[in-house]
Amino acid sequence: MKKILLLTIALCISISGYAQETGSVLIKNGTVMTITDGNKADTDVLIEDGVITDIGKDLSAPRGVKTVDASGKYVMPGIIDAHSHIAAVDVNEWTNPVTAEVSMEESIDPTDINIYWALAGGVTSIHLMHGSANVIGGQNETLKLRYGSNMDGMRFEGAPRTIKFALGENPTRVHGQGFDVKPRTRMGVEQVIRDHFDAALDYRRNRQEYLDAKKAYENGNLDTPPVPVAKNERLEVLVDIIEGEVWVHTHSYRADEIVMLMRVFNDYGIENFTFQHANEAFKVAPELKKNNAYTSVFADWWAYKFEVYYSTAYNASILNANGVRNSINSDSGELIRHLNHEAAKAVHYGGTSKQDALKMITINPAMQLGIDDKVGSIEEGKHGDVAIWDGHPLSIYSIAEKTFVDGKKYFDRSEDKDDMRLEADAETDFDEGRSRWYNENGRQNNTCLRGAEIRFTKQGMKLNQSRN
Amino acid sequence: MKYFKSLLTTCLLVFVIGMNVEAQITEKAEYGKFAITNATIHTVSNGVIENGVVLIDGEKIVHVGQNAKITADYQRIDATGKHIYPGFMDAGTQLGLQEIGAVAVTNDQAELGNLNPHVRAFTAINPSSVSIPVTRVNGVTHVVSLPVSGLISGKSTLIDLYGYSPDSMAVSANAGLHLNWPSAQKGGWWDDRSDKKIKEQYEKRLKTLNDLWSKAEFYHKMMSAYEKNPENKSKPDGNKKMQAMREVITGKIPVIISVDAKKDILNAIEWTKEHPDARFILAGVQDGWRVAEEIAEAGLPCLVSTLYTPERDYDNYQRPYQNPGKLHEAGVKVAIATGGVENVRNAPYHAGYAATYGLGKEEALKAITLNSAEIFGVDDKLGSIEKGKQANLFISDGDPFEPMNHIEQVFIRGYKIPMISRHTQLYDEYLNRGAKSNN
């Protein structure tokens, strides 16, 4: 009987193709930061086959399960970054103001060293986003940082589909200024979205009528074959958005454009959406709350372009005080290394409680990505995605020591080597180096406009297709 | 009568509230005599004083210690349970030179031309930059702002962050000459130049630098001879670039060499040895930990940050955090320089990372205060809480390296600074957006 069971399991694994390696571990005597149920001192967490099965005192390890002593340490859910471009191959399909048909699902680089560096900062999941060059960009992919697995192995199974929208300067600059293609203004941005939603609704009706008629013809209930309505992947995805199957994450900055999009979404019955960056979200916090909108913001980035000049680092605290569910993201290969301290800035600017600050990098981003039933807190039945810190994670003196995904250890500071690359690059010369000091504000790494930067040349404007 | 009384109270209340609203918009710095009492004073130069008093009179600190006679003319600030630190200094920024990154007309840090020793950051500092109050309310009171383009970018300026003109803010109008060290190696995976080409370009740029230097030496000799004896000679033609180099080659102001990679650092060290009369500082120095001994032996101080990704994909993830600690361990004097503009306010966290990863709290505190002051030769005025020094300090509710803690009051040059910036003003306006009721 046991053999049959094992065989069945093996068969399931080979069919699904990428069932993940899971692990089991008993983490003893730590301060467990459950996020949803307060902090529990001197408490054990048992993870079996990737799932948290018990939280309590004096648990004993089942046979074969290793024990990790966390006395004097903090056990925290893995940090979730709701806005990332690490582990990306390409970021921007910028050739059209609307590219809903493209997806990051085939644009994942599982060997990116930034994955390991993020694990070393206690991060276990990221929202790998398409860029912000177009009004309706490509679909995003939610990943688990299973460093060492392949592209399929990185996927967060069961996460809802999401898509990137972008308002304001980026799409108007790339398309309106760069190519003389609508939109050049925020007025145009609204109409591009409405035009395409309208087209999607027409398409849904026409396509359905065609399919019904085709069926009727095939069944002999119709004498003449109907005129075909071809399948259109771009419009299919837009229909999925209207039907609530694809959640929208919108790159946005100004208060007026945030309100505009909520008006549009209300008109089309779209309910599940997050405003990304949203530097001026604090100005319309009551409206965001009323519309059950989520926000995912920087802790303190501002002034790098005009639409973020009227920003405040108190954004997260104002949103939180107004009841808006907010997360703090990185959008950067650098900030993702210390999102815990980015969250601590919500305490610094505006006195958000430590508990709420921690939610902004755990359960809140999990809700925004639709994975809060699986991760984002330490609860029985949730995934074994946790990190052990040598002190309170919001303190600058605390260091992540171990990071587990599905109960499997992917980072251990005590076993950390210098070169943690998966594939050694023969072309990498030891003496190669980058001089970056004077540009160092994090914006150049893995940013939203990667692959679509506009250059001004003597011949006019050009799109720069360099990697950064 | 009762009615009259309550009317009076209401009037008074309205008046007071009205004043407060006005105060928030136009609040000015205060200047005079201040007594900060009952504080834990982190002097940096003389350890920590518990339950201490700092007296400020005008621009200067006039007393630091546990006991003080406080006369009635001092405004008292009770700092029970609070901490006092010297104002922090970021030794490498573009603050005041750039307002909005993507708006080119607001960027003044990169002049055209390859050799610009006469170009001065001091000239272009915008005292009204919105980023300046944003920075100083986080405890950063001083910055070095520097130009960035070409081989020789120009002269950087050391300013404090309170004032209505660059002149009133300047500690050293010309703090150093900024040199982008010519690299002798690939810039990254995208750099497809051949080894031969890289070597040629390096040698060409080095020659440009050396030519400028030797011309400047000749010019200095010629000018000095004339200046010694102006009656007997006709005045040589002036040259602004050469004139600007004179204070550099004679060591009056240092050359700040921006350099990151190991090979380039070693080349730069060799080059500095050819100029014993000049003074040099290394900046950036991301590979510093690889050649810490060599840098220490050359006696070169380093301006470094911590919050960046490792120089190379195959470097350990902690190297940027450990770099200041490893340099210090080898005997190098380090100071924090973020390279930032609008977020120079994060300089304390760069120091915090250095502290956590090997430098230790005490040395990290020096790296963001006294070390910078010493490196730029202004430690007679800045860098520590001592009697006779300028009153540049702040009061905090805890360790300022902790992002969770708060800076409560900042003093710059004796001025008690309003703790207001665009960021706090937007907070005050939008936290509760509803209008005030009129009844």
Automatic annotation (TrEMBL), chain A:
InterPro entries assigned to the protein according to its UniProt record, in alphabetical order: Amidohydro-rel, Metal-dep_hydrolase_composite, Metal_Hydrolase, Metallo-dep_Hydrolase
Ranges of residues in domain Amidohydrolase-related: 74-402
Alphabetical UniProt keywords: Hydrolase, Signal
Protein's UniProt keywords contain Signal: yes
UniProt KW Magnesium keyword: no
One Gene Ontology term of the molecular function aspect: hydrolase activity, acting on carbon-nitrogen (but not peptide) bonds
Lineage: superkingdom: Bacteria
Stretch forming the signal peptide: 1-19
Gene3D superfamilies per UniProt: Metal-dependent hydrolases
Alphabetized PANTHER family for the sequence: ALPHA-D-RIBOSE 1-METHYLPHOSPHONATE 5-TRIPHOSPHATE DIPHOSPHATASE (PTHR43135)
Name of the protein this chain belongs to: Amidohydrolase family protein
Organism placement in taxonomy: Bacteria, Pseudomonadati, Balneolota, Balneolia, Balneolales
